[in-house]
Design brief:
Layout: E1 4-10, H1 17-25, E2 32-39, H2 45-55, E3 59-64, H3 69-79, E4 84-87, H4 99-109, E5 114-123, E6 126-128, E7 144-147, H5 148-151, E8 160-163, H6 164-169, H7 182-193, E9 195-207, H8 218-238, H9 241-264, H10 268-284, H11 291-309, E10 314-318, H12 322-338, E11 343-348, E12 357-358, E13 361-365, E14 376-380, H13 387-396, E15 402-404, H14 407-413
Parallel strand pairs: 1-2, 1-4, 2-3, 5-9, 10-11, 10-14, 11-13, 14-15
Antiparallel strand pairs: 4-8, 5-6, 5-8, 7-9, 12-13
Helix pairs in contact: 7-8, 8-9, 8-10, 9-10, 9-11, 9-14, 11-14
C-alpha cells in the first residue's frame, strides 16, 4: 500500500530539481510514490526526471504541454494512489530524511485527516526560521491535535499531508488561477479535514530566491483577486473571522494598490474583481473603506510627498536597507521624469564595514552631512516605529526638514509612473 503520494509540478527547474528529487527519494518512509508533472519544460528538467526514474521506480512522470501549476497539481491528485497526498515545489526540498515518516505516523496515531509542521526559508545559502508577524502561522510552537477553526491559516500548504479520501470526497482542487491558487486549496482541504495534528519540527524548506512576482501582469492579478474572494467568501460562510480579518489586512496592506494600478491602466476585468471584493468587505466591515478609497488616499499621500521633495536641493535618504533602496529608486525615477537635478545621498547613524554603498552611491554617516542641514530634506526610510526617535536625533543635529515616507504607497503606486 502506498502511504504518501508526493505531487511535484515542474516547469523549467533544472537548476534545483536534483536536490529536490534527492530529498524525496531519501525519505525513510518507503511506501511512497513521487508523481512528477513535467508541465511543458523547455530546459533539461525532463532529462533529469528520466535519469532519476531509471534509478528509482518510485518516480512517475507525466509529460504534458504547459497548462499551469494548478492544472498540473490537479492531474497529480487524479493520479495519486497514496493514503495521503503531499505537495512539493521543484525548487524546494525536505530538510530531513524522516519528514514524511514523522507526518504520516503522527496523522495515523492521532486519527487526523491532515498533519503538518513548521516552515523554513532557504535564502542566500542559509536557512531562515524566523517568520514575519503576518506569517507566524507557518510555525508551530508545540505538538497537538487541533480543529481547523482554532488555526484559520492558509499559507504554506506544502507543510501538510492531506488524507486523499477527504480531498476526493469533497472534490477539492486547485482553482485555475495563475497565482494565489494555493491558499484557497489549503483552506478547503484543512477545513474539510477538520482535525489537524501539528508538530513543531520544520518539515519543509522553501527556497525564497528567484520567486519575484510580476504584479504588473494582469492575469496574475486576476488570479490573486479571485483567490482573495475565495478566502473572504469561505471565511464568511464558515464564520472563520480570524481568517477573514487576516485576509482583509492582506488586501489593504499588500494587494489593494496593485489591483488599483490595473484599473488606472484601463483594466475593466480587474475593476470588476475589485467590486466583488468590496462587496465581500462591506458584508462585515463597519466602515466604508474600500480598495478605491484607499487608492485615492495613497495617491494623495504620494503627491504630497513628491511636492515636499522639491523644497530643498538635496534629498538625504536616512536608511540604506531595503526600504532606503526602494525610496532611492522611486526618487531617482521621479526626478528623472520631472527633469530635476537634485542630489540624492544615503545616510546612516553607524556605517557597517561591509556596506559602504547602496545602489552604487556612497553611504555617509549622518555626521558627515551636517554641512547640508540647511539645504537638504531628510527622508526617513526606516520602519515607522523608529521615526520619532530618529527625528529627534536629527533635529538635535540641526536638520530642520525631516519627513517620513509611506513605503507602501511607493511600492504600490510607482509602477504607474
Amino acid at each position: 500500500m502506498i502511504k504518501v503520494s508526493i505531487i511535484v509540478p515542474i516547469y523549467n527547474m533544472e537548476k534545483y530539481l536534483a536536490e529536490c528529487l534527492n530529498s524525496m527519494m531519501n525519505q525513510t518512509l518507503q511506501d511512497i510514490e513521487i508523481i512528477c508533472i513535467n508541465d511543458g519544460s523547455t530546459d533539461g528538467s525532463l532529462d533529469i526526471l528520466k535519469l532519476y526514474q531509471q534509478e528509482n521506480n518510485k518516480i512517475k512522470i507525466l509529460n504534458q504541454s504547459n497548462c499551469g501549476v494548478a492544472a498540473a497539481r490537479n492531474r497529480g491528485i487524479e493520479m495519486a494512489q497514496g493514503e495521503f497526498i503531499a505537495f512539493m515545489d521543484p525548487d524546494d526540498y525536505y530538510p530531513s530524511d524522516d519528514v514524511l515518516e514523522l507526518l504520516y505516523n503522527m496523522a495515523k496515531s492521532n486519527k487526523a485527516a491532515a498533519c503538518g509542521g513548521s516552515l523554513c526559508y532557504f535564502s542566500e545559502g542559509q536557512k531562515i526560521y524566523k517568520m514575519s508577524d503576518t506569517r507566524k502561522g507557518s510555525r508551530f510552537e508545540e505538538n497537538g491535535l487541533i480543529e481547523y477553526d482554532q488555526y484559520q491559516y492558509v499559507y504554506g500548504f506544502q507543510r501538510f499531508i492531506y488524507e486523499r479520501e477527504v480531498i476526493i470526497k469533497n472534490h477539492i482542487k486547485f482553482p485555475p488561477y495563475i497565482r494565489f491558487q494555493d491558499p484557497p486549496f489549503m483552506l478547503d482541504a484543512l477545513a474539510a479535514s477538520k482535525k489537524l495534528f501539528v508538530i513543531s519540527e520544520v518539515v519543509y524548506c522553501l527556497r525564497s530566491v528567484d520567486k519575484k512576482i510580476s504584479y504588473s501582469n494582469e492575469r496574475i492579478m486576476l488570479g490573486i483577486a479571485k483567490g482573495l474572494q475565495d478566502l473572504l467568501r469561505v471565511s464568511l460562510e464558515n464564520d472563520f473571522m480570524e481568517l477573514y480579518k487576516h485576509t482583509v489586512n492582506e488586501i489593504f496592506t499588500k494587494y489593494a494598490m496593485r489591483l488599483y494600478n490595473h484599473v488606472l491602466r484601463g483594466s475593466g476585468s480587474i475593476e470588476n474583481e475589485i467590486i466583488k471584493i468590496n462587496n465581500l468587505l462591506e458584508t462585515k466591515l463597519m466602515s466604508k473603506k474600500t480598495i478605491f478609497s484607499l487608492a485615492e488616499e495613497k495617491r494623495m499621500v504620494l503627491r504630497e510627498f513628491n511636492k515636499r521633495l522639491g523644497e530643498k536641493e538635496c534629498v538625504i535618504i536616512y536608511g540604506a536597507g531595503q526600504i532606503g533602496k526602494e525610496v532611492y529608486d522611486y526618487i531617482s525615477k521621479l526626478f528623472l521624469t520631472e527633469g530635476v537635478a537634485h542630489k540624492i545621498k544615503f545616510a546612516v547613524t553607524n556605517l557597517e564595514d561591509d556596506a559602504s554603498t547602496a545602489r552604487g552611491e556612497k553611504i555617509y554617516r549622518i555626521e558627515e552631512l551636517t554641512d547640508w542641514k540647511e539645504n537638504a530634506i531628510v527622508v526617513l526610510a526606516t520602519q515607522k516605529k523608529f521615526w520619532s526617535e530618529i527625528g529627534l536625533n536629527l533635529e538635535e543635529r540641526g536638520f530642520g526638514k525631516v519627513i517620513g515616507v509611506d513605503i507602501d504607497a511607493i511600492r504600490l503606486l510607482e509602477e504607474i509612473m
